[in-house]
Records
---
Amino acid sequence: MIKQKQQSWHCRLDENAPVIEDEAIPDIRSGDRNLYYPVPEPVNRDGFTEMKQKTPARIGIWRTGSRYLTEAQLRFRADHSTAQDSVWSYVSPDFLKKNNLFSINTLCRDKEDYITNPDHGRVICEEGVKTMLSCCRKKPTVQIFIADGLSSAAIEANSIDVMKSLMAALDYYRIDYGTPFFIRHSRVATEDQVCELLGATVVCQLIGERPGLTSAESMSAYIAYKATVGMLETRRTVVSNIHKAGTLPVEAGAHIADIIKLMLEKKASGTELKR
C-alpha cells in the first residue's frame, strides 16, 4: 500500500488512471534516443550500438509478439505530438522583441488557413507590405528575413544563431545586407515578393521545415539571386537540416554566406549556379 505522506493520487478522465502529484514523471523524450536499446541478448551489441550512433532512425526497438514495446510506442507518440505542437504553435512575441524583429503577416488569417490554403501563405498582406517598405532599407545587396513556416520551434532554436553567423561572414566579405524582420504564416515564395519590393540582389529566407519524428527543430535557408514573383523553383538554392543534430546553426550561417558570395560572383542561383 502506498502511504499518503509519500505521494497522493487522483484520477483524471477515469478513476483507473492514477497520476502522481508529488513526484515528477520523467519526460520520455529526454535523453539520447540513440542509447535506447531494448533488444535482449543481442548477437553483436558493440556493432549495433555503433550503428545506432550514426542514425536517428528507429532501429532495434524490439517487440512483444507482433506489437511494439510499450516504451517504443510511447516514444513514437511523444515525438508525433512534439511535431504537431511545432506546426500549430506560434513564435513567441518575446522572442521577436528580444531580437529586435518587427513582424508582418501573409494573407493567412490563422494557422488553419495557413495549412489548408498554401497560396495564402505565399503573398504578404497589404498592411505587411506597407510596414516592410517603411521599416526596411531599400536596395540592399542581401535581404535576410525569418519565417515561421511549418515549425515555430525550429525558428526559436536556430534562426538567431544562423543570422548572426551569416551577418558576421557577410561583414567579413564586405557584402551589405538589409534590415532583418519576421513573417508570420509564411511559405517559401514570399521571398520573391520581398526581393522585388525591396530591390535586393539576393534574398535569404530562414524558415522552419516540416517536422519529422526525429526532429521538430529543423530549419532551412532558401536563397535566390534576383528573385521574381512566379519564378521557377529551380532558381532557389537550399541549405536544409539546420539543427543541433544536423548542420549546426553557426556552421550553416558561414556556409550560407559562402553561397551568397558565389551567387554574386556568378550572378545566378539554384540549378544555374555553377562552381
Note: Strands lie at 9-12, 14-20, 63-64, 67-68, 103-105, 142-147, 182-184, 202-208, 219-225, 236-242.
---
Amino acid sequence: MKNRICELLQIEYPVIQGGMAWVATAELAAAVANAGGAGLIAAGNAPAEFVREQIHKARSLTDKTFGVNVMMMSPYVEEVMQVLLEEKVKVITTGAGNPAKYIPALKEVGTIVIPVIPSVALAQKMQKSGADAVVAEGCEAGGHIGELTTMTLVPMVADGVDIPVIAAGGIADNRGVKAAFALGAEGVQVGTRFICSEECTVHPNYKDMVVAAKDRDAIVTGRATGHPVRTLKNKATKLMDKLEKEGNLEEFEKIGMGALRAAVVDGDTEMGSVMAGQSAGLVKDIKSCKEIVKDLFLDIAF
C-alpha cells in the first residue's frame, strides 16, 4: 500500500497531522509518527529556541517521520528557519505566506517542503519554486482559513499541478479520506480529529468542547480584518462578532490577544479561542493516535 506521499515522507499511511499552534506539540507529533503518519510540531509565533527544544523532544519520543509547521507571519520566522536548517528537519509545512525564498536552502539540507495553499495560483507558484507537495486546505478547516471549500479547491489544485496534493479541511473520518482521494488528493491533513487524541496535551476542557460540538458550532470571525479564523462559538466569539459588525476592530483585536493560549493551556473555553474545524461535529470521542489513524484508513487502498 504505497503512494507518492507515503514514498516521499517514508510513512505507512498518507496522513499529516495539522500544525495547530499551541496544540501540535512534540508529544502529539511523535504519537502520530509512531502511528504511521507524519506528525507536525507547530512553530506558531514561538521563539526559535522553543522550536529547537520541541524538535529534540520529538526525537526522543520517535525515530519516525515528523516535521515542523512554520507560520510565515511569525515575527521569529527567520530565526525559526535557521533552526530548521541547523537541525535538518525532515519535513516542513508552511502557512500564512509564501516560503519560496527559503526553499532552496531547505532542499540543500534534504528537507521536504510542503506549503499549505488556499488557491490554484499559489499551488502552481510553489511547484515552480521547488515544493515537493502542497496541502490544499479548504475553508472548513479550523484556525486561519481561505475562501474556497475543500470540495472545490482540491480537484482544481490536483488538475493544476504535477506534484502530489494533500487535502485538508473538514476531514475527520474514513468517509472524508475516501472523498479526498476521489477528488484527486494523494494524502490528507487532519487537525481537529487529533485534538481529541489521548496524546494531545491540550486542556481537557478544550477536548470536551470539541467532542460536544454540533454541526453549526464552528464559526468564522475576523473577516473584516482580512484574517478570518474558524473557532467554536462561545462568549468571546459572540462579543467579537458584535464588535466586528460595529467596526470596532481595535477592541476586537484585544479580545483575540492570548486567547488561543488561554483555551489550550488554561482551559478557558468561554473567553479563550477554541480553534477547530467544521469537522468538530464528527468527533465523538477521545482515542489514541494509533486508533485514529487506523480508523481513518480502514478498508482504503491507496
Note: Residues 48-61 form the longest helix (14 residues).
